[in-house]
Specification:
The protein is α+β, with helices and mostly antiparallel strands. The relative contact order is 0.15. The strands form 2 sheets. A 6-stranded antiparallel sheet has the order 1-2-9-4-7-10. A 4-stranded antiparallel sheet has the order 3-8-5-6. It has 3 domains: 182 residues, Sandwich (Jelly Rolls), CATH 2.60.120; 45 residues; 65 residues. The chain is globular. It contains 13 helices and 10 strands. It holds the Pfam family AraC_N. GO terms for molecular function: DNA-binding transcription factor activity; sequence-specific DNA binding. Keywords: DNA-binding, Transcription, Transcription regulation. This is AraC-type DNA-binding protein. It comes from Muricoccus roseus.
């Protein structure tokens, strides 16, 4: 995709997010509007492994890179990013400074809300086929940016949130449903879509990643044959179900060690590995170093900035 062109509206959104986060520091900050978060990073970050949930992210200032499988997505003001399923990615803030931090608005997507809105909106022409990978980048239309700004502005008037935020969120979702990423939003909303089937499988793996993986049972849950599940799962997530489970296991083990809740051996067993040598080998393959050396490197960096990369 060609370079996006920021507008004065992006500067307006950046100013709102900057005011909300300047005293909170770097990181992902939940707000009093359900599902809405603001993100700040005051310096570029190293690459950081994380999992994106179904969400839309609108960049107001700075730039970021997300890597899913072999797909590299670079985005900046003028772009929005949509994720349709829980997706392991590598995130990295690439452009940020103390004077001009990376600033982003993230809205987690509620499938039930999308489904209801889709029914109300009715059919709007021929529906495009579902997108391949469950992450997509597009240009932010003026109407979408206007709704995002008004939703963010409500955070300065808490008394208005209960009445006005549901309407403004619905407007933002409507703009998404009628924009470039309509097919992805339809896939999230429709329970029998291919993406929804993969999402059911993803949610089971996420909730049971320590357990042995039985493809036949997972395929039944997704309402697919085992071969179809493998094909569609890899299309949407850029990895097989087993590779997906492995990423979740290793990311959880990394979190346990980094938070000092476990040593490396204990973390491996806690996430489902029976062999310490296999755990150490696969950990190093994913994160570039064995557990102890990787954790020492992470503790020497800026954890808040890495958390911002994770958002």
């Amino acid at each position: 995709m060609s370079t996006a062109i920021p507008t004065p509206r992006h500067a307006e959104l950046a100013l709102l997010i900057d005011r909300l986060t300047e005293n909170l520091g770097d990181g992902i900050h939940a707000t009093c509007i359900p599902r809405l978060a603001v993100i700040r990073a005051s310096a570029p970050t190293d690459r950081f492994h994380t999992v994106y949930g179904p969400s839309v992210c609108i960049v107001a200032q700075g730039a970021k890179r997300s890597i899913a499988g072999d797909r590299i997505l670079d985005y900046a003001p003028g772009h929005y990013l949509t994720v349709s399923v829980e997706l392991p990615v590598i995130g990295q803030v690439t452009q940020a400074s103390a004077e001009e931090p990376y600033l982003c608005l993230r809205l987690d997507l509620d499938p039930a809300l999308l489904s209801g809105l889709l029914i109300e909106a009715g059919p709007r022409g021929r529906r495009a086929p579902e997108p391949d990978l469950g992450i997509m980048l597009s240009y932010t239309a003026p109407e979408m940016m206007d709704a995002a700004i008004r939703l963010t502005r409500l955070l300065s008037t808490p008394g208005d949130i209960a009445v006005l935020s549901p309407m403004t969120e619905r407007e933002l979702l409507y703009r998404l449903l009628t924009g470039d990423q309509a097919a992805m939003l339809h896939a999230i909303a429709m329970g029998e879509s291919r993406t929804a089937g993969v999402a059911r499988a993803v949610n089971w793996i996420k909730d049971n990643f320590r357990e042995p993986l039985r493809i036949e049972a997972l395929a039944e849950l997704a309402h697919m044959s085992p071969s179809a599940l493998h094909q569609h799962f890899k299309t949407v997530t850029a990895m097989s179900p087993l590779q997906y489970q492995k990423q979740l296991r290793l990311q959880e083990a990394r979190r346990l060690i980094l938070s000092a809740q476990s040593d490396a051996a204990g973390a491996g067993f806690a996430v489902g590995y029976s062999s310490p040598s296999q755990f150490s080998r696969e950990y190093a393959r994913l994160f570039g170093a064995p557990p102890l050396r990787d954790i020492a490197r992470l503790r020497g960096g800026d954890e808040a900035a890495m958390n911002a990369a994770a958002g």
